[in-house]
Amino acid sequence: MQKVLSLFAFMTIGILAFAGVEVGDVAPDFKLKNIDGKMVSLADYKDVKGVIVIFTCNHCPYAVLYEDRIVALNSKLKGLGFPVVAINPNDASKYPDDNFEGMVKRAKDKGFNFPYLHDESQAIAKAYGATRTPHAFLLTRGNSGKFSVAYIGAIDNDTENTNPDKTKYIENAVTALNSGKKPDPASTKAIGCTIKWK
Fold first, then answer.
1. What's the CA gap between 150 and 90, in Å, rounded?
2. Was domain 20-194 assigned CATH 1.10.3720.10?
3. Residue 51 neighbours by CB distance under 10 Å
4. Where are the domains of the chain?
5. Short-list 88, 173, 192, CA closest to 131
6. Considering the entire predicted model, what is its pTM?
7. How far apart are CA 147 and CA 142, in angstroms?
8. pLDDT tens digits for range 71-108
């Protein structure tokens, strides 16, 4: 009986460890290495209204299809107070294309205009509850100065990038926040490759 209870406790702890955040929760801070070798923290973003955290990678076909859109997203929304921060959580031992050197090359080749951070331990992806690449978390700064989660899910509803009339979830959510409203929807299903866990 004791073994059963211990196993149940272990499984429960494991589930809670991967539960991640929900809309309205305080956003976990992070301090991760950027492609320029410098450490970047959420706490570094002191003069912004919010931050768009996107878990992505180099090799996933879905992530690749979103790269130009993420660049455009940062170009458009950074000036409105919502810059993009991309984070690669994949285990490079399983997918060598997702190693740090590959990140540096990919960012240079695609002209990334945002930080691209390496979550080597995968602790930040687990803290947020990210499961896919790409998986977006829109954070907004409250009166206390802390960031909270305002939206979780997909960047838009066009994974193949073929629909000119796509619904731009992140852009619409930022527009809502800048108008003093809550994003609607506040969450959608992230579509992409599963994160490659250690």
1. 25
2. no
3. 21
4. 20-194
5. 192
6. 0.91
7. 6
8. 999 999 999 999 999 999 999 999 999 999 999 999 99
